[in-house]
């Protein structure tokens, strides 16, 4: 039985984001896909591209407080504050506890 806790892994992801810690890239699998719809639709794959994405993200849209954390359809939904509103990210994990797919965008009310 796996001791992997996807909710705890999602908190680790948000903590790394809030700390502007590039170790966030280590939370992604080697074949992970990140889709960002915060400004324009962006699709990121590969370690180098993820590293550059996060460098820019830390500077342009730093994460603030956790607004909501929930499980939906086997994925984790993380809503968090950024300077210009709330973003919701969806994180899908593999059995090894790595993020295989991430999607984010502004939370629409």
Describe this structure in words.
- By secondary structure, this protein is an alpha+beta fold.
- The chain has one domain (6-106): Roll (Nuclear Transport Factor 2, Chain: A), CATH 3.10.450.50.
- The protein has helices at residues 6-18, 47-60; strands at residues 28-36, 42-45, 66-72, 75-82, 85-93, 99-106.
- The chain has a six-stranded mixed β-sheet, with helices on one face.
- The longest helix is centred in the middle third of the chain and has 14 residues, at 47-60.
- It is globular, with a radius of gyration of 13 Å.
- 20% of the residues are buried.
Number of strands: 6
Question: Which geometry do the CA atoms define?
Answer: globular
Strand order of the largest sheet: 2-1-6-5-4-3
Low-pLDDT runs: none
Helix content: 10-25%
The average pLDDT is 93
What is the class in the CATH system? Alpha Beta
Topology:
Blueprint: H1 6-18, E1 28-36, E2 42-45, H2 47-60, E3 66-72, E4 75-82, E5 85-93, E6 99-106
Parallel strand pairs: 1-6
Antiparallel strand pairs: 1-2, 3-4, 4-5, 5-6
Tags for this entry?
single chain, 109 residues, alpha+beta, Nuclear Transport Factor 2, Chain: A, 6-stranded mixed beta sheet, 6 strands, 41% strand
Summarize the structure.
This protein is of the alpha+beta class and 109 residues long. The chain is built from 2 helices and 6 strands.
């Amino acid at each position: 039985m796996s001791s992997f806790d996807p909710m705890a892994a999602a908190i680790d992801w948000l903590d790394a984001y809030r700390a502007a810690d590039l170790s966030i890239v280590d939370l992604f699998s080697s074949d992970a896909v990140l889709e960002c719809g915060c400004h324009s639709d962006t699709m990121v794959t590969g370690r180098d591209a993820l590293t550059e994405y996060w460098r820019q993200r830390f500077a342009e849209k730093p994460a603030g407080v956790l607004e909501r954390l929930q499980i939906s359809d086997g994925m984790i939904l993380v809503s968090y504050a950024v300077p210009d509103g709330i973003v919701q990210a969806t994180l899908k994990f593999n059995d090894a506890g790595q993020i295989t797919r991430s999607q984010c965008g502004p939370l629409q009310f």
